[in-house]
Specification:
Layout: E1 21-26, H1 30-42, E2 49-52, E3 55-57, H2 63-72, E4 75-79, E5 86-88, E6 95-100, H3 108-125, E7 129-133, E8 142-145, E9 150-153, H4 169-181
Antiparallel strand pairs: 1-6, 1-7, 2-3, 2-4, 4-5, 5-6, 7-8, 8-9
């Protein structure tokens, strides 16, 4: 990724609303996870920390062993702990899911670092990557598709919805999802 982007243009995706943002890569296998781990370990500008039951643990662990540990223990990998603070919990082998606190994407440099990470991982794995609101896999703030070398922002039009109470949120989310499916 060579083009720098401004957070000002994409601040809706990182609004402080009390929820996290997720990165998803679908249809993954063991070798995809291994490539991800190799990539983050080779990035000398990344500080990565693996926690097992909240205690630091060496990261030089086989991916299969990590998933096995995650079935009995709280396993958390913090990627780029000093800047992006991406979190991986090793939920399922078939899907890479990372989460981040949108408050950590607070400068152009950090946004560009996130975009670089997403682009690199997507190209490395030859799979599309999606930035979404927390637990909303069908609403894509950003997606990158390595086969077409295309990245696309699709930010919601929050201001076009009248929110009278928190009970309105599920209906608003349904409406947004319908718009994105068209």
């Amino acid at each position: 990724m060579s083009e720098s982007i401004s957070l000002e243009n994409y601040k809706k995706a990182f609004a402080r609303d009390g929820s996290l943002r997720d990165l998803y890569i679908y249809k993954t296998q063991r070798n995809d996870w291994e490539c991800l781990l190799n990539y983050i370990q080779k990035r000398s500008d990344f500080t990565n920390i693996l926690f097992v039951d909240q205690h630091p643990h060496p990261l030089n662990v086989d991916i299969q062993d990590l998933f096995h540990m995650a079935s009995d223990h709280a396993v958390l990998l913090r990627i780029d702990a000093n800047q992006l603070q991406l979190h991986c919990h090793f939920f399922e082998m078939q899907e890479i899911e990372l989460d981040l606190d949108p408050r950590d994407i607070n400068t152009d440099d950090r946004l560009n670092r996130l975009m670089e990470f997403m682009h690199d991982i997507s190209v490395l794995l030859k799979k599309s990557i999606f930035l979404t609101p927390e637990n909303m896999e069908n609403v894509h703030y950003y997606s990158y598709h390595p086969e077409t070398n295309e990245g696309k922002w699709s930010l919601p039009e929050w201001e076009s919805y009248k929110l009278h109470s928190f009970k309105d949120i599920p209906g608003i989310i349904d409406e947004i999802e319908k718009r994105h499916r068209k």
